[in-house]
Structures are given as C-alpha cells and as structure tokens.
Amino acid sequence: GGNPVIEAEKIKAMVSEIYSYNNFMQECGIYIVDMSCGSATVAVKVDPVKHANLNGNAHGGLVATLADNATGIAGATIGKRVVTSTLATDFIKGAPVGTTISATSHITHADDKLVTINIEVRDLDNDTLVAKATAAMIVIDTFPGIPEKW
C-alpha cells in the first residue's frame, strides 16, 4: 500500500539511479525524459560533431541506439534486467543535426524469459516520425524492489 504517486516517484528514482551508471548512454549524450510502468522515453540532442552522418542528419546508429536505450529502461520499469536479442528498425525520415530526438518505448508482452517492445523515435523540433522499431529482450535477472505493476 501507500501513496501510488510517491511509490511511482520512488520507482522512477530507482530506475534513474540504475541507468546513471550506463557509460554508453552518457558518452552518447542520451538522457531519460520520462518513464511509467512498462514505458520509457529517452532523448538526445543531435551533435554535429559526434552524431552526424554524411548528409548532416542523425546517423542511423544513433537512432537505433536511442531506441535500444528506451527498451532497456522500459524493462527496468517492470523490474526486469534485460538484454537485447533483436532490434528491428525502420528508418522513416532524417533528423537534422541540432535537433532533439526522442525514443518512446511501450512493452507489448512480458514474462519471465522475454519482453517485447514497440518504439517510436521522433524529431521533437520538427514534430516528425524518424523511425519505428520493435525489440525482443531476453530477461537475464530482476531488479530487486521494482514491482511488475505500479
């Protein structure tokens, strides 16, 4: 029991703390925007020096990386430590350097072995859909203290 809003804030703080140790996210400049039970949004400002492809847009690898980070965090929101098995990404539109792109993930299935997730990557400055992705995540452990439902 207890106050659901306080519980949600505690869980969000726990997941944020877990991901504060993700060196690759930090190197890329990816940060958590928001999360809820079974969903997460991360974002990055597309740096012309670090993230650009030859066309002056966000490199596809950055777009896929953003999607992949949103999946792991979504898994953590239901107490599951996951690793990516597959990440299928459909690239739709380029995101120019200087823009901020976000990836929002929604868990579509979860059990003790597998979590499946849908992800949308958007260019927030131009309000365009950059990519859609699906992921299958293998559950390798649980995060103590994070419930499956909140």
Topology:
Blueprint: H1 4-19, H2 23-28, E1 31-36, E2 39-45, H3 60-77, E3 80-91, E4 100-110, E5 114-123, E6 128-142
Antiparallel strand pairs: 1-2, 2-4, 3-6, 4-5, 5-6
Written account of the structure:
The structure is a single chain. With 150 residues, the chain is α+β, with helices and mostly antiparallel strands. Helix content is 27%, strand content 41%. It contains three helices and six strands; from the N terminus they run H-H-E-E-H-E-E-E-E. The protein has helices spanning 4-19, 23-28, 60-77, and strands at 31-36, 39-45, 80-91, 100-110, 114-123, 128-142. It has a six-stranded antiparallel beta sheet. It is globular. It starts with a helix and ends in an 8-residue tail after the last strand. The relative contact order is 0.20. The mean pLDDT is 96.
Kindly, what is the distance between the CA atoms of the first and last residues, rounded to a whole number of angstroms? Answer: 11 Å
Characterize the overall form.
globular
Give a quick account of the main beta sheet: strands, pairing sense, barrel closure: 6 strands, antiparallel
Number of E-state strands: 6
User: Low-confidence parts lasting 5 or more residues at pLDDT below 50?
Assistant: none
The largest beta-sheet arranges its strands as: 1-2-4-5-6-3
Attribute tags:
alpha+beta, globular, about 150 residues, 6-stranded antiparallel beta sheet, about 40% strand, 6 strands, 3 helices
